[in-house]
Amino acid sequence: MPLFTLDDLNDAAAIVGALVPRTPAYAWPLLREALGVEVVVKHENHTPTGSFKARGGPVYVEAVRRARPDLRGLVTATRGNHGQSVALAATRAGLPAIVVVPDGNAEEKNAAMRAFGAELVVAGRDFDESRVTAAAIERERGFLYVPSFHRDLVRGVATYAAELFADHPDLHTVYAPIGMGSGLAGLITLRDLLGLKTEIVGVVAEAAPAFALSVQAGRIITTETARTFADGMACREPQPDAFEIIRQGAARIVTVSEDEIAEAIRLYHRATHNLAEGAGAAALAALAQERHRLAGSRAGVILCGGNIDLAVLRRVLSGETPAA
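Structure (tokenized):
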């Protein structure tokens, strides 16, 4: 049974459209020259939060408000983009939001979450430890914990897939990064609902390979660390629902190195003058790795976010690969 229906998606699109304008999808000629493939970039870096996650929070919050009119507040854990979406949606709904981030989280993402109205709590070495603190806050404060993967989040973010397939229904392959899996799950679900033959390819960081290892093994594999500078992909514990959709619906999972991600950020800047965070550039890195198998076809990549700290961007543009 699909995670959502087309009617569910239309309902989500009405909610998302009030907050997130339609984002462009351009075929940049300098990317074609660099890679030898026509590449359509879906610019989710152009949302109000600079990330595709902006689409999920409003749909989730609207659904829980309908079901729980006495809701006291929301709490979540994040590396940044999910937290911005939850903070923005909660503030617009008049609800308090607490966002837990790990120690050493990107300062500019932290600042953005505060600006969108969140109370920020720093706890844990990584995202998965931050989730434990968020769960404790849920119990102590009586707030609702917002997971990183949920049906209503997925149908919200899947509105970007609807826009992409409406504008470019002839794409042979679409590459998308995997963090906790909502973006890729939305692409796969909508592709199947529309009856398209488009290959959907997931992308993970070499330093955070949990989803790739899990798909290869046919069962969930966790890792001890997920130390990638592409913090939006720093997953070490795949969620079961996301894993099943990706295992069944993705053509393959491509693993990219930290160097490849950094080079894709530089290529985006040279060819499109767009800023991409590490996770935002990962899909392009994977396409570059596989460009020879794409000869003669049109491919899409999801530039899922542009929220990269200035210090990290300076290092990348100077030719370095940042350490996690």
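The two ends are 38 Å apart (CA to CA). Strands lie at 25-27, 38-43, 74-77, 97-101, 119-122, 144-146, 173-177, 199-205, 252-256, 298-303.
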